[in-house]
TrEMBL record:
Membrane topology annotation: Peripheral membrane protein
Xref: InterPro entries: AAA+_ATPase, ABC_Ni/Peptide_Import, ABC_transporter-like_ATP-bd, P-loop_NTPase
Protein name (Swiss-Prot/TrEMBL): Peptide/nickel transport system ATP-binding protein
Keywords: ATP-binding, Cell membrane, Membrane, Nucleotide-binding, Transport
Species whose genome carries this gene: Rhizobium giardinii
GO CC term, one of those recorded: plasma membrane
Organism ancestry: Bacteria, Pseudomonadati, Pseudomonadota, Alphaproteobacteria, Hyphomicrobiales
Single GO MF descriptor: ATP binding
Family listed: Belongs to the ABC transporter superfamily.
Amino acid sequence: MTGEQILDVRRLSVSYRSDGGYVDAVRNVSFKLGREKLGIVGESGSGKSTIGRALLRLLPTARITAESIRFEELDLLNISEREMLKVRGRRMSMILQDPKFSLNPIRRVGDQISEAYLTHFKCSKAEARAKTIDMLQAVQIRDPERVYDLYPHEVSGGMGQRIMIAMMLLTDPDVVIADEPTSALDVTVRLQVLNILDRLVSDRGIGLIMISHDLNLVRNFCDRVLIMYAGQVVESLKASELSNAQHPYTQGLLAAQPRIGGGRTPLKVLDRRPEWKEPLEVQA
Ligand SMILES: Nc1ncnc2c1ncn2[C@@H]1O[C@H](COP(=O)(O)OP(=O)(O)OP(=O)(O)O)[C@@H](O)[C@H]1O
């Protein structure tokens, strides 16, 4: 972990209710987060998003257990829903893959951001509007006054994602959980959004959790990486040390990455093994 510690998750497990009882989606996951970029990588269904939602207690029907989930002075496991409301969307925020699902289609985007600000802070509508314009500028939206008055269907995917980031920034959070924030974007727009997120960490000292199935993206963007397999963190290491990964699943993922100029050798296919469910003890 780099920098001051903001979050310390110990032995988090999450089970979803199913017909015959509960199904484990996350098992005994532990990690710490400083003012840094932490990637969580794994295949679909490995439990990545469940971790993000569990931290924000957005899973009312799931069973969440942990030794502790320390977020600065709080233990998120034990605080009341009322206290959680002050954390969720204010001190800890989430950005999702597709901003269109998070925005109301029949309201102007600027009004939605201002309203989010007014929910958290007592101020006049004019002040909320001014703050919204500032934030749109902070995420490099040119002509924020014009964008303020657009409806969600009038903005592109990349601009929509920046609007979501602007909405989140209004409350100056300490932790941001970004769940596949760029997977719906084309390559150039993806880089712009990643740059904005990168600056949030370096300029504002945010702790960023980047959930992704894209090992290459996380490897190039994050400081540290948790590799998830079947609900567990099987390996945790610095992004720069991924090529020295010890766990066979991580090694398999690395070997299965396509390479430009890699010739005509067929891509390796991951051949799953039961022993992969054994996590390594080594933690970055
Ligand atoms: N609300 C739910 N009710 C029941 N099971 C769920 C629910 N949400 C997720 N699951 C199950 O929990 C497991 C973990 O899902 P999760 O969405 O956390 O995985 P993920 O790694 O984020 O996958 P993806 O990359 O596809 O989003 C999966 O088996 C999924 O089917």
